[in-house]
């Protein structure tokens, strides 16, 4: 039976940059030396060729890849506007094309709705249905690319449609496609969930991606996330997918400003080196 130690460990390049380029090659090489199995990249509107080129470099290094993305208000899958929903599906298909060009296996993120866009009311049943319809169509497109879409529940200050695993589980149920599963992010769960074990058990049947993120977005293990509960429960539900560190800095000023990162938490190489050691130690602890 697979154990937590068989889960691949990844690192999200957003600690350095949202756009990918050859400038990221030395970073990828050093992450490989640390021991990482893969790298997660942000999908924006760069040409497909940029993702293919970077993916080729990762493959030469023996690294796998995953991707993360967000949606703008003009690409909101939950929108009342059929035109905006069509644009959402186009955006998701374009992201799948870029992820496929890079050789990625997963696209994660809060792409069930528009990031930091609020209706000033609680989420409506019709919004879940509209989002699920778009996700189902995107899942069908992702199927031919052999990519799993993993929508993310994020905190109340960045989203209103999906804050908890219970909400996310319902959305995935409605989407009803094998290529549309779910992700769990420890940073957001720290804000929104009552207890990590209950949240993970709730999402366990469709869980396909995990972000290892400290409460302050710094080095995992350096804050107050209930890490023992997290890794113990992941072991109990036989999770063996990606464990990817998502941490933020002000290296990319435009990106940092867009997500309200106003100070440095830890140096990115401190996050990468000590975060990797922390994850491997916790995997070993709960694989016995």
UniProtKB/TrEMBL annotation:
Keyword DNA damage: no
Residue ranges constituting the Xylose isomerase-like TIM barrel domain according to the UniProt record: 29-257
Gene Ontology MF terms: isomerase activity
Keyword Isomerase part of the UniProt annotation: yes
InterPro entries: IolE/XylAMocC-like, Xyl_isomerase-like_sf, Xyl_isomerase-like_TIM-brl
Alphabetic keyword roster: Isomerase
Top-level lineage group: Bacteria
Protein name: Sugar phosphate isomerase/epimerase
Naturally occurring in which organism (per UniProt): Spirosoma terrae
Record lineage: Bacteria, Pseudomonadati, Bacteroidota, Cytophagia, Cytophagales
